[in-house]
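Hey all, sorry for the wall of text incoming. These are the two entities for the joint prediction.
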Amino acid sequence: MENQEAFDLECTGVSKEFGTVQAVDDVSFNIPSGSFFSILGPSGCGKTTLMRMIAGFENPSAGDIRIKGKSVLNTPPNKRNVKMVFQHLALFPMMNVYENIAYGLKCIGTDKATIEAKVRDVLDRISLPDVAEREIHQLSGGQKQRIAIARCMVLDPDVLLLDEPLGALDLKLREAMKIELKLLQHQFNTTFIYITHDQSEALVMSDHVAIMNEGRFEQIGRPEELYHKPTTAFVAGFVGDSNRWSGKVVALNGDRVQITTDAGQALWCPQRAAAPLSVGQSADVFIRPEFIQAVRKGAQTGAAGQENAIEGRVDSVLFNGANSRVLVRGPSGELIEADVVVTGGTDDLRAGDDVRLDWPVAQSMCFAT
Amino acid sequence: MQSDIKKLSLILLFAPFALWITLLIIIPHMGMVVLSLREKVAPRVYEFGFGNYIDFINEPIYWNTLLRTGSMSILVTFLALIIGFPIAYYIAKIAGKRSRGALFLLCLIPLWVSDLIRAFGWILLLRETGVVSSFLLWTGAVNQPIEFLYNDVTVVVGLVYTVILFMIVPLVSTLDGMDDAMIEAGYNLGGNGLTVLRRIIVPYAMPGIVSGCIVVFMLTAGSYLTPILLGGKNSSWFTEQIYDQFITRFNWESGAAFGFLLLAFTSIVVWLGLRLTGQTLANTVAKQ
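and here's what came out:
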């Protein structure tokens, strides 16, 4: 019983069909109280449908949704203690800030004095104490964002749903809002469910992230787990950047497998304990750019050569401060990305240099296809 | 050079509008003002004075007719709003993308037929030997033919039917601009259907409601055919009085005065309506 109460939201086997389209397919997850949970997936993967079911705007074709341990399947949206921040915020333009925030309280019949106190309190908490009398169109993008959150939080919801609310903001503001949302979540200590297709939003803010694809959850885990230990090829390819080769398993050697790419390059990968690969299977290999070391050919490196190495020629250098990269044309003409440090000195790699790329076996990821 | 062309195109674009306004609106109305302020003292002898307006005040049947026209027009406007709003809401928010166009077209179809023919259509249905009366006789619900024409209810029904489209069109276009998420947000924050309608949908649609009401009210108060044909002699519509003065009595001076009184009266009603709903005329045309 104790265990049951620790979850603010539980979904078991939730499915939704629209005609013949399976929008959400047998999704199950539990969200512990007070955590920041993100659902990350490409557009059209069913994440918005899933959220609309939690909010009550759609009914699941199968499965159960429980909030604080109680099934809400037969509860209409206006009786669920789940509030939602809409993609375009949906602030009411004919009301000012105060009336927007007071709307929900009036709906549940709160008396005037309490409303006044609660609205002032929530405006203080989002650090916008002086905007109560402003009209919505007088607010900046970031302020609207915070008002939309305040309008929900003033009702003390069990779960707050956020449907890509940062999508409409410009880049700088989006970066700032990411941090602010995380801080707000800590401050209110309410469970946030954040829907996005932007992986950096999900990775930066969340305690847990679910990766969704074609109506199914591919993997649920902490951001660093998803990044470093993806369990499916989709997650490996979707979360973060990676270089990808397709090939066939040619040999097994203890906890390692050797894969020959379609271009004939032999690569070593760690064997996957959960779903071991066998000889003859086709597989995809993923390596993140930051694990690939690019060394000018012939240069001596302090570190011993790694087991995995590919030779190529630098096609171009992509300078982006600390995130600079080189694009290397490999033996079969594919472009490989590798992180490099560009100092501006004479040692920097330049287009046309011959290089050797190598990376540790442990950092390769391979998945049967 | 560039600015000259701009200036020229502005003048060319503006000219038809200016001509239309001056020739067809301003000059005739000024003529009417002058006309209405002439008092007939002897055959072909006129004096400046407010006699025509004083006549209007002194004759209760005149201002009674005006008040009656005004109150019935308000009733028609109200009914058109009550009936038109759900239709507009259905077209803009509930109907699918494809059926939306078809439904809108269906609303427009009555306009393809002239006012006169439509009024005769009603007459065919409602007269003593008409479709409705015959049907009731045939079912045995009544034992003698009923005359449905020539009463106020028929006039109101006929007017609502004629003008409701002008209510639906502005309503559909404002409701169409409303983000569905706003209605969902209304529910999500705990509002029930009534609260969402009262606090979110109606306030949002207010510019459309006001502009629809103004158009419908003006059209109704100024209509002539429908009240005359469906209401007969009993309709006592103010436009009938104006027609009477101009054509039957050949008293153009008094007719002009009545025309102005109708314009002033309807303008005051619209102004009052705007004041009561807290809207401005500019609001109904452009959203801030």
